[in-house]
Amino acid sequence: MLELLYAAGAAFGICVLAGPVLIPVLHKLKYGQSIREEGPQRHQQKAGTPTMGGLMILLALTAAALWFAGNSPPVWLALFMTLGHGMLGFLDDFIKVVMKRNLGLKARQKLLGQSILTAALAYFAVAYMQRGTDLWLPLLNSYVDVGWFYYPLIFFGVIFLSNAVNLTDGLDGLASGIMVAAGVAYTIVAVKFGYYELAVFAMAVTGACLGFLVFNVYPAKVFMGDTGSLALGGALAALGVLTRTEILLVIIGGVFVIEGLSVVIQVISFKTTGKRVFLMSPLHHHFELLGWTERKVVAVFWAAGVLCGAFGLWLIM
User: 230 has which bridge partners?
Assistant: First the structure.
């Protein structure tokens, strides 16, 4: 069990040590964040804050996971999902920040990359890791085989979750803090279901996010960018699939799910009725426009993330 603490500690330490090296480099290269003009006005003061800090997270979690669980095929597959999504995010950030194209990768380009990664995850998990096509049902503590339907279900779920984490990364420390709660919860889930190496991976993710929070809490010195948020979404999705707890993932990652759904609801409502359900989406911006301070929104959403993780653990106990 000590490997779990070692993995978290190593990832935390690497991320903390990488910050003072990488952040000045990002400053010097002028890899600053551009701020949405339609967003809350107080966010404009964040313009120019270095982004692409997700590189710190990727370095830290990859090194820790390989060092303490590098002989595990499921960990390699989880890293493939994480780094693959991280590469997509890096390309998106690079196009927006360096090439000065505000929209980054086109939606269809990003979707194609995510589709390839998700297809690879589903194929290798089912064909080579005996994952099967069954789903574990919380409370009932039983499995139901959904057959071929498993593939479109995972295809939709993984892509939705990776984008939901990306959408959540809109306030200082928001996404990384919620990922700490989800990472701890999935560490316990992985141990409970006998996936010890994946528990090590989950702790590496947790430690890296904690280390990143040193620089990312309000007022943030660096943003993770799509490089980090898409990667963390891929990591969390991989943990759900490889531990065969996809339904539980919806609960443990409940804040991310709600943030993603708020955007879907807003778009559908506006396109069909011309009216908005929320003052602004994703949901955290709605509360900002209601007058909540950024710190209050983040604290409440962190608490919600902890509650989601705790409820998920209650279901497996």
Answer: none
Q: Cα separation of 129 and 91, whole Å?
A: 30
CA distance 218 to 294: 8
Cβ(114)–Cβ(166) under 8 Å? Answer: no
Which two tokens mark 71? 């002989």
pLDDT class for 141, splitting at 50, 70, 90? confident
* Structural contact between residues 234 and 86, judged by C-beta atoms closer than 8 angstroms: yes
Give Cα separations from 75 to 78, 87, 310 (angstroms). Answer: 5, 18, 24
pTM score: 0.93
Residues 6+ apart with CB under 8 A from 156: none
Which residue, chain included where needed, has tokens 């959540």? 168
Q: How far apart are the first and last CA of the chain?
A: 19
Beta bridge partners of 144: 135
Q: Distance (Å, rounded) from C-alpha 153 to C-alpha 121?
A: 13
User: Mean pLDDT, to the nearest integer, of 212-218?
Assistant: 95
Rounded-to-5 percentages of helix, strand, coil across the chain: 75, 5, 25
| Beta bridge partner(s), residue 316 | none
Q: Which amino acid does the sequence have at 164?
A: A
Pairing state of beta strands 134-137 and 142-145?
antiparallel
CA-based nearest residue to 230, from 267, 179, 301:
179
Nearest to 264 by CA among 120, 156, 183: 156
pLDDT reported for residue 30: 65
* Distance between CA atoms of residues 187 and 207, nearest Å: 12
Residue 155's CB is within 10 A of a number of other CB atoms, namely: 16
